[in-house]
Amino acid sequence: MPDKRDPFRELDEFLERMNEQFGGIGRSLEPGLRQEIRVDVADHGDEIVVTADLPGFDRDSIEVRLDDGSLVLDATTESEATDEGEEAGVTYHRRERQQRSVSRRVSLPAEVLAEETNATYANGVLTVTLPKQSPDDAGGKRIEIS
User: Fold this and answer.
1) For residue range 105-137, what is the model confidence (pLDDT) as tens digits?
2) The CATH number of the domain where 37 resides is what?
3) Are the C-beta atoms of residues 125 and 53 closer than 8 Å to each other?
4) Are 79 and 95 in contact (CB under 8 A)?
5) Rounded to an integer, what distance in angstroms lies between the CA atom of residue 40 and that of residue 142?
6) Range of the domain at 19
7) Staple 111 to which of 19, 35, 84, 133, CB 3.0 to 4.6 Å?
């Protein structure tokens, strides 16, 4: 039975390919909806390491998940825009920083072991280490030819 198509995943992959081809022009068509997360995807032989720049976000506002062969990164930060006001003993004469949301789906070049994946976040840099799945881990079995 063929796999069920996921048009949203296909659209994300298409936009990612377009972004790679045109250097970010696709994101300018979606103001405020989706901002850029720059990533490095490195293959270290037995593991894949994804490093993402997420400056200005709190650790608790970042979501990392594996979804159908892709690593999905989401982060949100919020603050209210006002001209003047006081909050926690601080007088603001102008506050312009507002809600910011970023998201990125990164296709992984190999199957990974989800239960052994870990992530760290320090100084605005998220590092996700994804151990690769070997054919034996996938429940595969070598078949001898007689």
Assistant:
1) 999 999 999 999 999 999 999 999 999 988 666
2) 2.60.40.790
3) yes
4) yes
5) 34
6) 7-131
7) 133
